Amino acid sequence: MTDATPPDFARWQPSYDTPPPGHVSSSRLERVLRQGHFAVTAELNPPDSADPADVFTAARPLAEVADAINATDASGANCHMSSIGISALLTRAGYGTVYQISCRDRNRIAIQGDVLGAAAMGVRNVLCLTGDGVGVGDQPGARPVFDLDSISLLRTIRTMRDDGVFLSGRRITSPPRMFLGAAENPCIAPLDWRPDRLAKKVEAGADFIQTNYIFDIPVFERFMARVRDLGLDRRVFILAGVGPLASGRAARWMRSNVPGIHIPDAVIDRLDRAADPGEEGKRLCIELIQQIRQIAGVSGVHVMAYRREHLVREIIAQSGVCRDRARA
After folding, report:
1. Is the pLDDT of residue 8 over 70?
2. C-alpha distance from residue 130 to each of 41, 65, 101, 184 (Å)
3. What's the burial of 77, exposed, middle or buried (CB within 10 Å: 0-12/13-18/19+)?
4. Which listed residue, of 1, 137, 142, 145, carries a Cα 20 to 30 Å from 13's Cα?
5. What is the pLDDT of residue 260?
6. Residue-range domains of the chain with CATH
7. What distance, in Å, lies between the first and last C-alpha atoms of the chain?
8. So what's the pLDDT on residue 212?
9. CA nearest 162: which of 199, 207, 132, 120?
10. Which long-range contacts link 159-162 to residues 24+ away (Cβ below 8 Å)?
11. Distance, C-alpha 154 to centroid of its chain
């Protein structure tokens, strides 16, 4: 005998809300940035689990200080809980999220459908990524798609949002009201080309940028100087990527094995000499945030504390970057 009680659809129904004037979404992250505050986003380490409690356990220390939590999409070409699943769980719990989409595993039909689905579940921020090649992950026999890349993905979602149509030209009844993001890596050669690459992403529709890890402040300062020369700092919000290194050994491993990571020898030497490398890595992260805060054109930081999420609240508090504003 089946239960005849109908489901309570009214229990949780995210509204299709209208963005405030001058905004493209109702995202807290967008609101904080447009108000001129220094924003903080943080990356969640996705679980190898179907238990939602594992997501919330990882999210809680981030949510205390982050304006939005990034849900990664099989980064490094390794399988974990999906970014759309994590984004939906966090949104339902009241957290702001950044839904990451990689072009590696989906074609344009699947991506457009996922964007509508995420928007219907209340997700208001999306980060558009090309995605790491399958060869760097633990299932190298997987078949990559790459129907789109990060720039064409930005154009696709902007078309859906602003023009209210799919790529086919078919009308979307209720377009996705999303704040569009992209990634950039200021510290990887060719360095002179990086600001021009950023300009292409801004032209394609990026509203905000999250960079890869910044451990080399002089290189990042040169990047930002060129960004200002091009006027891009007035067109896009830039959040610099930071994170606490656990040890010199961990830093060397990241530099050798993680695509797009630049860690100067001086940073590794500092960790090697420290009596407590983990504490020194945290201190270094705090110092980097404080230095980044002083660079013109930087609108916030994106904290990536892989397996060290418990440190994020302390890092942000000790950096002092959010003392000028109350939590909204």
Report:
1. no
2. 20, 28, 8, 11
3. buried
4. 1
5. 84
6. 26-244+298-314 (3.20.20.220)
7. 49
8. 96
9. 207
10. 160/112, 160/115, 160/116, 161/24
11. 14
**For the chain, give me the number of helices (H) and strands (E)?**
11, 8
Q: What angle do CA 225, 227, 228 make, to 5 degrees?
A: 65
Neighbours of 283 (CB within 10 A): 16
* Structure tokens given for 30: 């967008």
Is the model's pLDDT at 305 over the cut of 60? yes
What are the two backbone dihedrals, phi and then psi, of residue 118, each rounded to the nearest 5 degrees? -65, -45
Determine the pLDDT at residue 13.
Answer: 62
Tell me the pLDDT band of 6, cut-offs 50, 70 and 90: low
Which among 327, 320, 328, 251 has a CA at the least distance from the CA of 292?
320
- What is the reported pLDDT for 1? 44
DSSP 1-13: ----PPP-GGGS-
Mean pLDDT for 18-31 is: 93
The tokens for 265 are 């020898």
Task: Compute CA distances 1 → 6, 7, 8, 181, whole Å.
Answer: 14, 16, 20, 49
pTM confidence score: 0.93
pLDDT of residue 328 exceeding 60, the answer is: no
Q: Which amino acid is at 231?
A: G
Residues 316-323 have a mean pLDDT of 90
Tokens of residue 136, six digits: 């760097």
DSSP states of 51-101 as a string? -HHHHHHHHHHHHTT-SEEEE-SSGGG---S-HHHHHHHHHHTT--EEEEE
Tokens 């070409």, located at residue: 77
